[in-house]
Design goal:
This protein has 1020 residues and is mostly beta strands.
């Protein structure tokens, strides 16, 4: 195995070699299109405020309005801060006149969302500033822009075309630059909303290709460029008849946009080589609609009767019969499919997904994954770790501090669950049905509860339920009892001050699993019911956690547990308070009623909370990064609900929660919105392996691919596969090429793919005078935001060897994982150098950095945005197979585990092709792709040798909390989770499509009892 280099270096080889793994936050490119798509400026971000938007947030208004007033919306975080004041000012950008919105007209609801009617008295652009002040903290301001607009005319003289297809209606250009200028040279004439995003400019190109098929390309923008009402769009063309229609409008035009007559022109050429006729090109195809893929295409310049099609790992022939159309029936595999068609010396790629597609753009719009995780808790783990840990907490000082979190002010009882939850609750538990007549009684705490001692006495696992007995000593609860006789929602008079006081009480609570409408739910019940102590003609078989024989009251000298506190009663209810105490002393009727109400509250309130938690997908964003100085903090929008399959049995509890993916704003940011864009699922058809550890977490293939999809699609320049690789970025990972490749007597394996010109692209550019051979390069990678990467657990037969090569013929000994990377975009840039700084010991000058520490691009084009001045852009797709070895204790560091990984070049597929139209040099496109492809293959082969694999370290102890936070772990005193000996296992199951992590954990708990710190390790 490799011993001389760090894990970071080895991972770095895979990062740059496959351009597949790695993380970076890079400047956002100015356009959202690639070759063959619309080239348009990036639209301004549209903000819609939510509960995580910070103290002050203002919704982005429309870019233009016709009326004299519009409604501005936003949100103040009133849950975390106390608002002192809020103000809104409106300034006309031309006249500079300013108005203040009348403060009483700013409406704020109880969730902090506000709205205000903002005046726009004159036409022209406006800046609206919202200022909010909190009682503690800084004042915040946010500004938005909009316009009050007038209609305008769109005339032919407003349009400029490059090339000028009106003057010469024939071209071979792959796109037409359309410039729309609506304000001429006037600097202060924008009464149409151009500068505030109030104008929508649209260009529709309708194309009839030489084979007779009709296509339509629609490009739109609201972003003004260079001021003066100028809008620019790059509209793609295709060979054949093109007809371009240009329109522009604002709010003053209503639903009718001014448009010019179509401009017809002819595009010459035979296309980009491959023209797919069927199926209709989509990011992915649903297995239900396509049992197989009938692939037919035209290939420019092809003369042979048959051509080679390389589908994933199989070479097949596509042939034509009497025409120029090649046909072959493809049998796709679940996941990413990489297909290439051989055309002369180059392979033309077609990459698509296949399987069951869960899409936010389908009719259902449901992005959920059932059975995403498989969590197993053994009876031993529950009894010997969870149970004693809870008891330790109940006997600690921290337990008493929990009551400081309760609000001592009385509040009216409010039903917070949904009608759907209430329907489920009353159907399964008739005790929870509300009374339809009579007074409504509600209770509220008037002081913090007091508990002298609490202990869980027993825990019994049954088939379908868990029984817990909670023994409580010296429990005192002070309540206000309020009535509403006429049921008008208002309390009648002063509340009755009640006390519940128990010298001892034993609550027998049962967590019971039931099936409701085809899904498993949990309810709070008890092994006792009211028929265990009440007469048969009176009882209702209602679950009763607290029964009379298991309690001893302490509210009066007669042993009652409930009393009206005379000393605290208002004079208006004092006589009633005394009557209640007297009546209870004689008949126990009050005690019976309160006990019934208390049991009902425990059963119904607990069940309601469980049903609500299971019915709703709780947000659980996963935070990734920072990593190695490349990946900044990134949040993956994920939610979980336990409304999936659950099982309680004497041996333990098994849960299979359902995952909710993303949210509306997340998916609205995607550039392609089709039902074929989404998660490609591969649900398991086999049983999950029987749990063998105390705690097991099964990560299904669908769940892992959900994370990959969300992390990759995160935002432009922020996703998992949006990466900028250069020598400075590798230095942030601790990889210094000058030392590894220049000063070292034995260069490292990473040196052949060092991000420099001669290593990655050869010497052709240097020989022709473009750049020096040692020119540093930037490899800019952008993930595919229509087809996400995937990971799957596979068998050797599912990923057969493609080509046997010397030195790479060993059969794998470990488990196999395939990493599928579809159509990544790789742009290679030259970088500026620091000419005023001396070279390093190997003669290389340092790369010039901007103020943010990013390398500065040296554009290959003059008078162009440097980001458009790449050397070339390539498209990379890989089916990368990794061998995963056994998990073992690291012999060099017994405090951690390690797992062996190595790529298998002979079973991996790599396709690297130039993107047409991106080459900024006169050198043939194929030269660049061929050179870099061979470099990557050499690196893969090198690291495929068994002695060249590398180990990934895994800690044996994980810190859960520092003990000082407000999270649940800190509150319970849970400090760390450690594994000793065989305490951790890793199992990959290709049959069940799951990766299972098994633990025999040792939990360290640190709490205080009577001021003394106590440390406990569980199990004992």
């Amino acid at each position: 195995m490799m011993k001389n280099h760090s894990v970071a270096l080895r991972v770095a080889v895979i990062l740059i070699g496959l351009s597949a793994v790695g993380y970076a936050q890079a400047p956002t490119p100015p356009t959202t299109g690639m070759a063959g798509t619309c080239q348009i400026p990036k639209e301004r971000a549209k903000i819609v405020c939510n509960q995580s938007s910070g103290f002050l947030c203002v919704n982005t208004p429309e870019g233009g309005y016709v009326s004299e007033v519009f409604e501005l919306r936003g949100r103040i975080d009133r849950e975390s801060y106390q608002l002192a004041s809020i103000g809104i000012s409106v300034q006309n950008d031309y006249t500079k006149s300013t108005q203040i919105v009348d403060p009483p007209s700013i409406q704020i609801d109880d969730r902090g969302y506000f709205s205000a009617r903002v005046p726009l008295e004159q036409t022209g652009p406006y800046t609206i500033t919202v200022k909010a002040t909190r009682l503690a903290g800084e004042t915040e301001r946010q500004s938005v822009v909009t316009s009050r607009v007038l209609p305008f005319q769109l005339k032919p003289e407003n349009i400029a075309l490059d090339p000028d297809i009106k003057a010469t209606p024939s071209t071979d250009a792959k796109s037409i630059d359309v410039a729309v200028s609506l304000l001429g040279n006037c600097s202060f004439c924008d009464f149409i909303g151009a500068s505030t995003g109030g104008i929508l400019v649209s260009v529709v190109n309708r194309i009839t290709t030489p084979d007779g098929s009709t296509k339509e390309v629609r490009c739109q923008t609201t972003t003004e460029q260079q001021g003066a009402g100028r809008f620019q769009l790059g509209v793609p063309t295709l060979p054949g008849k093109n007809a371009m229609t240009i329109s522009a409008c604002n709010a003053a035009h209503g639903a009718t946009c001014p448009a010019l007559a179509p401009i017809a022109f002819q595009v010459e050429g035979a296309g980009d080589g491959l023209t797919i006729l069927s199926p209709l090109p989509l990011p992915a195809y649903a297995k239900s609609a396509y049992p197989s893929i009938p692939f037919s295409f035209r290939l420019a310049g092809a003369k042979d009767a048959c051509v080679e099609v390389f589908a994933n790992r199989e070479r097949i022939q596509a042939c034509r019969a009497g025409d120029d159309i090649y046909r072959v029936n493809l049998i796709p595999r679940i996941g990413v499919n990489v297909v290439t068609v051989s055309s002369g010396k180059r392979d033309i790629p077609w990459v698509f997904g296949y399987g069951d597609i869960t899409s936010p753009f389908a009719e259902s719009k449901t992005m959920t994954v059932p059975g995403a995780l498989k969590l197993s808790l053994s009876e031993s783990f529950i009894s010997h770790v969870i149970f004693p840990a809870l008891n330790n907490f109940l006997q600690s000082d921290a337990f008493q501090n929990v009551f400081s979190l309760l609000d001592s002010e009385a509040e009216d009882g409010v039903q917070t669950s949904s009608p759907n939850i209430e329907g489920q609750l009353t159907e399964m538990l008739p005790i929870c049905r509300p009374a339809v007549s009579g007074p409504i009684l509600s209770i509220a705490l008037r002081d913090r509860p007091h508990i002298g001692r609490a202990k869980l006495e027993s825990l019994v696992m049954n088939q379908g339920s868990v029984d817990v007995a909670l023994n409580v000593d010296d429990l005192l609860v002070k309540l206000n009892l309020m009535g509403d006789k006429d049921r008008d929602g208002k309390n009648d008079g002063e509340p009755l001050p009640m006390i519940l006081s128990f010298k001892k009480a034993i609550f027998h609570v049962r967590l019971e699993e039931q099936e409701f409408q085809g899904r498993d739910v949990f309810l709070v019940t008890s092994k006792y019911n009211d028929c265990d102590f009440a007469p048969d003609h009176y009882c209702k078989h209602a679950p009763t956690p607290l029964i009379p024989k298991n309690l001893a009251g302490n509210a009066s000298g007669y042993g009652h547990f409930v009393a009206c506190e005379v000393a605290a009663a208002h004079e208006s209810v004092l006589p009633l308070c005394r009557v209640l105490n007297s009546l209870n002393a004689q008949t126990d009727i009050i005690s019976d009623k309160v006990l019934s109400a208390l049991n009902q509250a425990l059963v119904c309130g607990g069940s309601r909370a469980l049903l609500t938690a299971m019915d709703n997908i709780r947000a659980m964003p996963l935070n990734i990064g920072p990593i190695a100085g490349l990946l900044g903090p990134t949040s993956v929008p994920l939610g979980l609900t336990f409304a999936g399959s659950t099982m309680i049995q004497p041996s333990g509890i098994e849960l299979e929660p359902l995952a909710g993916l993303g949210d509306k704003s997340f998916f609205e940011a995607l550039p392609v919105k089709l039902p074929s864009v989404g998660l490609i699922r591969n649900p398991s058809q086999a049983e999950t392996p029987v749990p063998s550890k105390s705690l097991e977490l099964g990560l299904t293939e669908d769940f892992l691919n959900s994370l990959l999809m969300l992390a990759t699609w995160g935002g432009q320049g922020k996703g998992l596969l949006d990466l900028d690789l250069s020598e400075p970025s590798f230095e942030n990972m601790g990889v210094r090429f000058s030392e590894l490749c220049g000063l070292s007597q034995q260069p490292a394996a990473i040196c052949p793919i060092r991000p420099r010109l001669k290593e990655l692209l050869g010497t052709t550019l240097a020989n022709q005078g473009y750049l020096a051979a040692d020119q540093p390069l930037l490899v800019r990678i952008r993930g595919n935001r229509a087809l996400a990467p995937r990971l799957s657990v596979v068998t050797p037969s599912e990923v057969p060897m493609i080509e046997k090569k010397e030195g790479v013929v060993e059969e794998p000994l470990g488990s196999l994982i395939e990493f599928e990377l579809p159509a990544l975009e790789l742009s290679l840039y030259a970088l500026e150098l620091e000419e005023n700084r001396p070279p390093d010991a190997t003669g290389n000058r340092p790369v010039r950095l901007d103020q943010q520490g990013h390398p500065i691009i040296r554009s290959m084009l003059t008078q162009a945005d440097p980001k458009q001045g790449q050397i070339i852009t390539l498209e990379l797709s890989t089916l990368l197979v990794l061998e995963v070895g056994e998990l073992e204790t690291d012999p060099n560091d017994p405090s951690q585990y390690r797992v062996f990984l190595r790529p298998l070049a002979d079973r991996s597929r790599l396709v690297l092709s130039p993107v047409p139209g991106t080459n900024r040099t006169t050198i043939a496109d194929e030269n660049f792709g061929d050179i870099l492809r061979e470099k990557i293959k050499v690196a893969l082969v090198e690291y495929s040798r068994k002695e060249a694999g590398f180990y990934i370290p895994l800690p044996k102890e994980v810190q859960l909390s520092s003990g000082n936070g407000n999270d649940a772990f800190s509150l319970l005193g849970l400090r760390s989770l450690s594994m000793g000996g065989e305490g951790l296992s890793l199992e990959l199951s290709p049959e069940a499509n799951v990766i299972t992590i098994g633990l025999e954990p040792i939990l360290t708990q640190i709490l205080r009892r009577a001021g003394t710190q106590v440390t406990v390790r569980l199990p004992n």
